[in-house]
# Entry
Amino acid sequence: MDSMISAAARLLATGDLLGALKRVALREDAPALALRGIAMAQLGDLVRAKALLKAAARAFGPREPVARARCIVAEAEIALVSRDLAWPAKSLTAARVVLEAHGDRLNAAHARHLEVRRLLLIGHLDEAERLLAELDPAPLPPPSRTAYELVVAGIAIRRLKTEAARAAFGRAENFARKAGIPALAAEVDRASLVLKAPAARLIAKGEERLLLLEEVEALLASGALVVDACRCAVRDTDTLVSLTTRPVLFALARALGESWPRDVTRNALVSRAFRGKDADESHRARLRVEVGRLRGELHGLADVRATKEGFVLTPRRARAVGVLAPPVEGRHGAVLAFLADGESWSSSALAIALGTSPRTVQRALDALAEAGKAQFFGRGPARRWTTASLPVFPSTLLLPGPLPSD
# Structure
């Protein structure tokens, strides 16, 4: 490696992007292409960066496996930032294995961080934790240690372990300060805001209030019977009953939870569960059947008793009942939650993250755009979607992945 490439690499590591580009801007050799690609990515020109890194990987070829693997890792980071979830994740894993085999622990650790971040994005929490546990963070330099702590915080947030998340953010802030890279410190600040923003709503006894993540954690540990509208489940401290595949039963459970300790009229239950205006005899018959099924599902948690006007939820162990709902609800709340991270998404990437069909996602995006809640730029496969204005709440509870005791 010549002196200009070495100087550019050092400047790039300290965040001096323009200084690095000045030293390699007119060069077309493989190391220069790679450095230019990384610099362009950090400047925000992801399309140009991706093209430069692909060219660098081809120029290095199979005879320089480590350099080629580093280019693949950089390309994977661009794919993650641009929410290109169709990018082959196996290529990143293969590149990490090459880097580990050749003793490049720093770039191998970075590759592992990217793998974990992708797994978090699509809700594979257990796999993300397993992969992160295989990494020893002690020898990592401050920038890499900052990335490690951010991933640790991300997992803790998704597990609703707010104290662990707060501690990880504190460590990340310290390492970012040691690294002396302003962009890295800003990333830590942005990520830590999730602990200060409303994460959900609690609906109980006819009243409603916003909750922070730590308050959500406290609610789930309080022993109360919680109708969890973020996960379509009914739970207390010890037991969880998922109703994800039973939307009618969950609609009934939510209506009963919102009204507790009062009962809910049969007309109101029919309207919530069957979208009917009035309860005729056919609706009443179906309601009796569905209430019976709900009793069967909740037999360890609560009973559903008939009253003169309708039905009431009676918890078996809990002394309080509440409904945990997303901060903002709507038909396409899950899609809006992903868009709320501030990145631009393709419809195919959203389909992968949500585990649904691209056509379903496209219909949701069209509806959100018509309502003024989403906007797009680009055409065809290059089209990307963002929120029209960023919601002031974290999307953690709306994204896939288990909560404690799931």
Observations:
- The domain at 3-195 is CATH 1.25.40.10 (Serine Threonine Protein Phosphatase 5, Tetratricopeptide repeat).
- The first strand starts at residue 200 and ends at 204.
